[in-house]
Design brief:
With 709 residues, the protein is of the alpha+beta class. It contains 21 helices and 24 strands. The strands form 8 sheets. A 5-stranded parallel beta sheet has the order 10-2-1-16-24, with helices on one face. Strands 19-20-21-18-22 form a 5-stranded antiparallel beta sheet. A hairpin with a 5-residue loop joins strand 3 and strand 4. It is globular and about 80 Å long.
Length: 709
């Protein structure tokens, strides 16, 4: 309680997923209003952090990158089911239920480089009967391993041998997997003395050598072999290193590829797109540079990868619309209805220590804009096809938002980005939050990339903060979205897809090695009937950041980096579209021409056919109507997990300051990989630090032995 005996004032700094989940968990407790008075402080005009998305021209969904839930998001999936149940939209409203908002996806495309060319490796993952609410079945590690065996058994059952010799080897592999599954039933968590280890080491080693003799000209067998070798290596390493007892952290001083090698993975497996998927999904390239080998802590890698094969129902759960309206807006609307307060346009600039150095005495904030009527909370959402959405960077072009702010006309004229640390906007005021008056407890839920700029006092006072910042790099990323006038199959796609499935890959050409075809989003956009696209492609990857960013006074830096992404995107399309979509090339649409490079006339826009300078809006000029972004700001950089970094992650309740807890996918969560799941786990942990709830045992994947003292 505060000094007046009222509810404890909790100030949450940062409105990304971690901060929102912290507020959600605090307000999920019975009688929370008597215990807490919660305010979320957020820079700019929207919530979401790295998961923020907006609506642009023609209601286009514009994202930071490719987002979705893996089926192994054991905490995020049930949380969003709870959010949608409480949101209680009426039947017929857009995204009325969890089942309408989150769509199961089972097809994944991987890419191999063989015989001097890229080759597609399509993979349809088997479904299982576990729903998003069945997480308790996977709480124990042996149950997760059993679920991985179930996946492997389902997968290998679908392999069709080409001859009796191959059939005999595949039958032996099926028998081995059955042995492994049986050994996991009803026993103790597997450790080095478990008979399962001997089974794996003796049986698979000899069988693998026999299979390898048959794979050279047999793509199906080679790929099945890689999947089996990969998963059995993960399981063998899990058992041999006694992860069930010692925990994943015990091997985090090792690099992922060294660890796989040590446990017998074949070279073909380690270099395969299957093994690289975890790395690419989590952007584990030093300084974002894809010209060097990726690194990742072995425990983080093993934990994430095993979970990804022990999924709930489907391997991926797509968002039916943008992340902003599928995840962030529902969270905001539920929290607002519960009574959580939101202060938009509050950009935190510094945390200052109290005189005793044991607590945070004040928080300095730039007030980016003021409400015309302070008695009315800012209304940040607007409807697109009756779905509450977040507006774009130029939100003040719309009177709905401009008229709420004193500075609305000036913001419209300036066209500035209030989320940018390099903004030219001159803030109209400053605010200092003072401990004991404005807050009793802080939750710092801003990304680690901003800590060196906001927390100089904290870093100076606590060596653990300096070590954490140095050990956990945050890298820049880049994203591109293109809307096309032809559908997937018109563009040359020839692999059958089940209803609801689309194309998702994390192993294509660098730097945009992540790609997804999200045509299911188009109906939630607002295009003219005669200009509606037929397909929508996302590309995302890291962005090299070996050069040191300039001071924030260099306000030309964002434009320079934006142009860098533009040129890299153009190069990427010109170099990489042929293997992906053979009918999307110039040669296919206007022969003779480039058989690999993209035909830019396929891009959909609503611009006039003649540009203001008199040049025709054809060819490469049409790219400027598409969407791309450079994720360069400290708050939007991706948190990596290099070897040795886990030991430096601070816990939510152990940041070293009496009146502050921390949240974000950069704190210690047990998963310790940058992800929406990690952010959700961190919000639950921060709530536990503040209130004792939720119980740590309910946070799936958090080690039971690492709670508060």
């Amino acid at each position: 309680m505060n000094d007046t005996g009222g509810p404890k004032k909790v100030a949450i700094l940062g409105g990304g997923v971690a901060g929102l989940v912290t507020a959600f968990e605090l307000t999920s407790q019975p009688g929370w209003q008597d215990r807490f008075d919660i305010t979320v402080h957020q820079l700019g005009w929207r919530l979401g952090g790295k998961c923020a998305s907006s609506r642009g021209a023609n209601g286009r969904i514009e994202e930071h990158g490719i987002h979705g839930f893996l089926g192994s998001y054991y905490n995020a999936l049930p949380l969003m089911a709870q959010v949608y149940a409480e949101l209680a939209r009426q039947p017929g409203e857009p995204l009325a239920t969890f089942d309408e908002a989150f769509l199961p996806e089972n097809f994944v495309l991987m890419w191999e480089f063989r015989n001097r060319a890229l080759q597609r490796w399509p993979q349809t993952f088997p479904t299982n009967n576990r729903g998003p609410g069945d997480v308790n079945a996977l709480m124990a590690t042996e149950n997760q391993l059993a679920a991985v065996c179930e996946f492997l058994d389902d997968l290998i059952q679908g392999h069709q041998p080409k001859d009796p010799a191959e059939g005999a080897l595949v039958a032996r592999a099926k028998g081995l997997i059955a042995q492994v599954a049986a050994a996991l039933v009803g026993g103790a968590p597997p450790g080095p003395a478990h008979p399962l280890l001997a089974i794996l080491q003796a049986e698979w080693t000899g069988l693998a050598d026999l299979i390898l003799k048959l794979v050279e000209n047999n793509d199906d067998l080679r790929r099945t072999f890689i999947v089996v070798d990969y998963i059995l290596t993960l399981m063998r390493g899990f058992i041999a290193d006694d992860i069930a007892t010692r925990g994943y952290d015990s091997i985090d001083d090792q690099n992922w590829s060294d660890w796989l090698t040590r446990h017998g993975a074949k070279p073909q497996t380690i270099c395969s797109p299957l093994a690289m998927t975890t790395i690419n999904l989590s952007y584990q390239y030093p300084d974002g540079d894809t010209t060097v080998s990726p690194v990742m802590a072995a425990g983080c890698y093993l934990n994430w990868t095993l979970r990804s094969f022990a999924y709930l129902g489907s391997t991926v759960w797509q968002f039916a619309a943008g992340t902003g309206e599928t995840v962030i807006a529902p969270l905001y609307l539920v929290l607002k209805a519960r009574g959580v307060k939101f202060e938009f346009f509050h950009k935190v600039t510094a945390l200052r220590l109290a005189a005793d150095g044991r607590s945070v005495g004040s928080v300095e904030i730039d007030v980016q804009a003021n409400l015309k009527d302070p008695s009315k909370p800012y209304q940040p959402l607007f409807p697109v096809k009756n779905l509450p959405c977040w507006p774009p960077q130029r939100f003040c072009d719309d009177a709905l938002f401009r008229d709420q702010l004193v500075e609305g006309p000036a913001l419209q004229a300036a066209g500035v980005d209030l989320e940018s640390y390099w903004t030219t906007w001159k803030v109209p005021g400053r605010l200092t939050l003072t401990a004991g008056r404005d807050y009793d407890h802080l939750v710092f839920a801003i990304s680690i990339g901003a800590i060196p700029f906001l927390c100089e006092d904290l870093i100076a006072a606590r060596p653990a903060w300096a070590k954490m910042v140095a050990a956990i790099p945050a890298v820049m990323t880049q994203a591109m979205q293109i809307w096309l006038s032809k559908d997937l199959f018109e563009l040359g796609w020839d692999i059958p897809l089940a209803p609801g499935d689309t194309v998702i890959s994390a192993s294509y050409l660098c730097p945009g090695n992540g790609q997804a075809e999200f045509r299911h989003l188009i109906p939630f956009e607002d295009w003219p009937a005669d200009k509606t696209p037929k397909s929508l492609w996302y590309f995302c990857g890291t962005m090299s950041g070996r050069h040191k960013p300039p001071p924030f006074t260099d306000t030309g830096f964002p434009e320079m980096e934006d142009m860098r992404v533009r040129f890299q995107s153009l190069q990427y399309l010109q170099a990489g579209m042929g293997p992906l979509l053979p009918n999307a090339t110039t040669n296919a649409n206007n022969p003779p021409g480039d058989p690999v490079g993209f035909d830019f006339n396929l891009l959909v826009d609503t611009l006039p056919p003649i540009q203001p300078d008199g040049t025709p809006n054809v060819g490469i000029a049409r790219f400027d109507s598409q969407f791309w972004r450079a994720n360069i700001d400290p708050t939007e950089r991706y948190v990596t997990s290099p070897p040795g970094s886990t030991a430096f992650r601070l816990k939510a309740w152990d940041c070293g300051f009496d009146n502050m807890s921390i949240a974000g996918d950069w704190i210690y969560t047990g998963l310790n990989v940058g992800s929406l799941e990690g952010a959700v786990m961190s919000g639950k942990l921060a709530s536990h630090a503040v209130s004792g709830a939720p119980e740590l045992s309910t946070i799936i994947g958090y080690p039971a032995t690492t709670g508060p003292d």
